[in-house]
């Protein structure tokens, strides 16, 4: 089954901002985005987005391969977040379920505008394709390093994609992997 990220919301909310987003590290006022970052413990300087959905006709990359790449990058200290459409949780959830390491599951948790902001702050995006309005298209517009798997000739292995992802991440001045990522569990605060 093909995933069509954000299609129900794309008609109401544009994935691409009207004006270019602020560069990495710049602060914009967005209460939804700030709440998402705080609640999930997102560390923008080491955030890698995995978007297993596709807009194109090419066959989707297997979820196991996404999980392998995500596990390799998480072991390097990158914070992995799975993003995608809430209406097709089987594909995004399958990637998370196939992973051996912790990851944030953000599929369906944000508006397209908030997702665009997250893409602008991420250090790397991996997705099946670059068709509009995909996260790869947004990443290209915002200058975030990315890999669109449908642009890779032949059968791309998870090892080859992980090598290319590491090379892209190494070129990011403001990207800093940390200790292997441990899942942040938000604390629930009792109302006073």
TrEMBL record:
<dbReference type="InterPro" id="IPR051199">
    <property type="entry name" value="LPS_LOS_Heptosyltrfase"/>
</dbReference>
<dbReference type="GO" id="GO:0005829">
    <property type="term" value="C:cytosol"/>
</dbReference>
<dbReference type="GO" id="GO:0009244">
    <property type="term" value="P:lipopolysaccharide core region biosynthetic process"/>
</dbReference>
<dbReference type="InterPro" id="IPR002201">
    <property type="entry name" value="Glyco_trans_9"/>
</dbReference>
<keyword id="KW-0808">Transferase</keyword>
<keyword id="KW-0328">Glycosyltransferase</keyword>
<feature type="region of interest" description="Disordered">
    <location>
        <begin position="173"/>
        <end position="192"/>
    </location>
</feature>
<dbReference type="GO" id="GO:0008713">
    <property type="term" value="F:ADP-heptose-lipopolysaccharide heptosyltransferase activity"/>
</dbReference>
<protein>
    <submittedName>
        <fullName>Glycosyl transferase family protein</fullName>
    </submittedName>
</protein>
<dbReference type="Pfam" id="PF01075">
    <property type="entry name" value="Glyco_transf_9"/>
</dbReference>
């Amino acid at each position: 089954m093909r995933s069509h990220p954000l299609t129900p919301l794309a008609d109401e909310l544009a994935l691409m901002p009207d004006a270019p987003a602020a560069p990495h590290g710049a602060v914009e006022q967005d209460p939804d985005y700030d709440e998402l970052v705080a609640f999930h413990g997102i560390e923008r300087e080491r955030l890698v987005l995995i978007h297993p959905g596709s807009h194109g006709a090419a066959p989707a990359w297997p979820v196991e391969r996404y999980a392998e790449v995500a596990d390799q990058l998480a072991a390097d200290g990158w914070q992995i977040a799975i993003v995608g459409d809430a209406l097709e949780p089987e594909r995004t959830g399958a990637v998370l379920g196939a992973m051996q390491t912790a990851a944030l599951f953000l599929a369906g948790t944000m508006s397209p505008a908030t997702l665009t902001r997250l893409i602008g702050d991420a250090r790397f995006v991996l997705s099946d394709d670059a068709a509009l309005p995909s996260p790869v298209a947004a990443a290209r517009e915002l200058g975030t390093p990315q890999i669109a798997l449908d642009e890779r000739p032949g059968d791309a292995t998870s090892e080859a994609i992980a090598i290319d992802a590491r090379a892209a991440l190494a070129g990011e001045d403001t990207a800093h992997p940390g200790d292997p990522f441990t899942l942040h569990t938000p604390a629930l605060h009792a109302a006073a």
